[in-house]
Amino acid sequence: MTPSEADYQRAVELLCAGELVAFPTETVYGLGADAANPEAVAKIFAAKGRPADHPLIVHLACHDAVEQWAEQVPDVAWELMETFWPGPLTLILKKQPWVPLTVTGGQETVGLRMPGHPVALELLRRFAASGGHGGIAAPSANRFGRISPTTAAHVYEELGERVPLILDGGACAVGIESTIVDCSRAEAVVLRPGHISPLHLEAVLGRLPQIATAEGAPRVSGSLAAHYAPLTPMRVITAPRLLDFINAQRHKGDRCGVIGHSQPPQLGMPHVWQMLPADPVGYAHGLYAALREMDHAGVDLIVVEALPDDLAWAAVSDRLRRSAAGAGQG
Ligand code: TXA
Ligand code: MG
After folding, report:
1. Residue 178 near ligand 1, beta carbon < 6 Å
2. For the residues 232-249, what does the mean pLDDT come to?
3. Domain spans of the chain?
4. What residues pack around ion ligand 2 (CB closer than 5 A)?
5. Which of 13, 32, 74, 159 is the most buried (most CB within 10 A)?
6. How would you list the strands of the sheet with 272-275, edge to edge?
7. What CATH architecture applies to the domain 234-326?
């Protein structure tokens, strides 16, 4: 699943011409445009149907590019980059004055990330070498509010012909969006939990970071209560109640799509049943694809077995909560 030389060349040509290119990262697929070109960035918002005041993440090829985009980068940010880049960590930093407000959603800060996927890195290196500022602005390549894509086929399903080129890098390893840490404040704060957990961050910060609450947080579309949502209504039910719940649905004449991790499939039930791994890393990898598949299965209700209440599960629990809040509104 490696793009050809011609694919990379076409991708760079499109980016330089102010067009969109979707590409894989280790978290989810991104919908990319030249971050220094406000008209190109505007096409991202149009394709996604996303409100213009939601800031985008700028993807970079290397640590050295950071100071082109951000100023007053604190030591703690450099330490986080040293440890976790390339990887699923986005840092919020004070932006350089030239950085267009279209990218930052009107804010004085910019989100930067060096992704850990070979296709993303190759694209970024080639784009940087073509001249210009080399940053690729890329939100997840889904329609606003919907489930993030973890394969090239998902991107096509979401955006179709709105994006002239989708680079295929196979299924994303991580499966949920990057951890976002705001380093523009006196103390680093987690704005969005992800694969890099508070415990990983503690090793660098020397203390457990604060997790932003919805009220005090700046605009982060991933922080909206309803996000990452399937079109089918969805309920989260604890394991002990699961069988009674889906039996009750059956008596009402409703067919459930069940996503479990510890409760094994019940044979003979007229329901669609999918098991995800019972560890948070494996679960994150499969979650969005499973929700998408349930949307396609034609069930009346998606029933998800509740997750353990444990810090290691915080990022997937966060996505599951938001998916449930927005589900069925398609
Ligand atoms: O894993 C990821 O981060 C993926 C891949 C493609 O890199 N991207 C992604 O982008 O999830 P998006 O746009 O779906 O989510 C990025 C989040 C948004 O919620 C946005 O509000 C936040 O990052 N963000 C970006 N710049 C920000 C800033 N200056 N201040 C606060 N939040 C910011
Ligand atoms: Mg998104």
Report:
1. yes
2. 94
3. 5-205, 234-326
4. 140
5. 32
6. 234-237, 301-305, 256-260, 272-275
7. 3-Layer(aba) Sandwich (3.40)
Distances from the Cα of 4 to the Cα of 7, 11, 294, 295, 319, angstroms: 5, 11, 33, 32, 34
- For ligand 1, whether the C-beta of 138 sits within 6 Å is yes
- Helix, strand, coil: what percent of the chain each, to 5? 40, 20, 45
Q: With 0-12 CB in 10 A as exposed, 13-18 as middle and 19+ as buried, what is 308?
A: middle
102 CA from centroid of ligand 1 (Å) = 13
Residue type, 99: V
Q: Is the CB of 27 under 6 A from ligand 1?
A: yes
Q: Would 5-205 and 234-326 be classified into the same CATH topology?
A: no
Mean of all residue pLDDT scores within the chain: 93
pLDDT score recorded for residue 330: 60
- Which has the closest alpha carbon to 25: 111, 126, 134, 150? 150
Query: Is 106 a residue whose pLDDT tops 90?
Result: yes
Element (H, E) at 57: strand 57-59
> Domain 5-205, CATH 3.90.870.10 — does that match?
yes
Please tell me the distance from the alpha carbon of residue 63 to that of residue 78, in angstroms, as a whole number: 9
3-class SS of residue 122: helix
- Tens of pLDDT, residue by residue over 10-48, are 999 999 999 999 999 999 999 999 999 999 999 999 999
Q: What values do phi and psi take at 313, rounded to 5?
A: -100, 5
Both tokens of 151, joined, read 């394969």
Cβ atoms within 10 Å of 254's Cβ, excluding its own: 15
